């Protein structure tokens, strides 16, 4: 028998068997490699690049809660590579994620520098040994939401008082229909409550406009003298009734860029507060200073003053340092909040100095601008008026058939 065919058959069987064994070995090696990768602390491909491009705080931690990779913002919360994940609550969140074997989310407070911040943290396993933790700072969001709730609550409360008074006074007028003196008395009080309600509504709308995202639209070169004079004039009746003199001093001729109505209301609110909280016979000063590109408008009184622990809160909506006096004077609790937002919308700031029993000084600082060329403006107006006069004269002449 020829041995050649047998050799070929044997060789073919050997190749087939050898290939099968080789395939099985290769599969086993790949499974082993996958198991090693899963059990190792090696980051999946591209993880560092993704973390580097994130604006949020994000870190990857190993089984011992050691940070193996971190996004740049994570450093603000003290999370650097090779350091231990900070915060007991955050570490417990990672442990819970591993036990539950699915992502977990929790709200907690974490320290950023010396400040505690409210954050929302989410932990997700990316390998059996590595966990991704993403932290989102929600402090400002929570603060805005709290302010919104307070605003709605306070507004409802403040509106309820004059609305209730109007209702009761209307009923009193109806009951006293046969008594003219009583009717006049209740009608006077009704008008006062209606005015208070109108003032409160107007101030709420003003504050809402100032807090909106829209820019101020009525911007022009504004004379500070014009603003101060209008603000003082708006409070002159109240000041005379209280026996208080308003004294204007300081620099003249300063100008700023802004909305004259908004600025006048802001300074008027400061003067109104000074008048309301000053004892009868005392002066209220309004001073202006222009220096180094800044215009300062200071309103000073010799009133009751504001305790130091309340000075940060006086610019909050509806906050009153003296509840009883504010009620008597008909204050809405929105004046200083309007001042703050009005000044900020003009790129400025407002500061307070106060001592109980010695009085208060509110100082508004605004960016100054060069005073406009008034002579040039007057010349332009004269030329424009003369041109208009000539044009009207020609029109009359044509109408009468005279040569122009």
UniProtKB/TrEMBL annotation:
Keyword vocabulary terms for this entry: Kinase, Membrane, Phosphoprotein, Transferase, Transmembrane, Transmembrane helix, Two-component regulatory system
Gene Ontology biological process terms, A to Z: cellular response to phosphate starvation
InterPro entries: BphY/WalK/GraS-like (IPR050351), HATPase_C_sf (IPR036890), HATPase_dom (IPR003594), His_kinase_dom (IPR005467), HisK_dim/P_dom (IPR003661), HisK_dim/P_sf (IPR036097), Sig_transdc_His_kin-like_C (IPR004358)
Localization, UniProt: Cell membrane
UniProt-annotated stretches for the region Disordered: 373-404
Catalytic activity: ATP + protein L-histidine = ADP + protein N-phospho-L-histidine
Stored Pfam families: HATPase_c (PF02518), HisKA (PF00512)
GO molecular-function terms, A-Z: phosphoprotein phosphatase activity; phosphorelay sensor kinase activity
GO cellular component, one term: plasma membrane
SUPFAM superfamilies in the cross-refs: ATPase domain of HSP90 chaperone/DNA topoisomerase II/histidine kinase, Homodimeric domain of signal transducing histidine kinase
Domain Histidine kinase: 154-370
Transmembrane segments: 6-29
Enzyme Commission number(s): 2.7.13.3
Compositionally biased intervals (Basic residues): 378-391
Class of enzymatic activity (EC top level): transferase
Oxidoreductase in keyword set: no
Compositional bias annotation for Basic and acidic residues: 392-404
Name recorded for this polypeptide: Sensor-like histidine kinase SenX3
Upper taxonomic lineage: Bacteria, Bacillati, Actinomycetota, Actinomycetes, Micrococcales
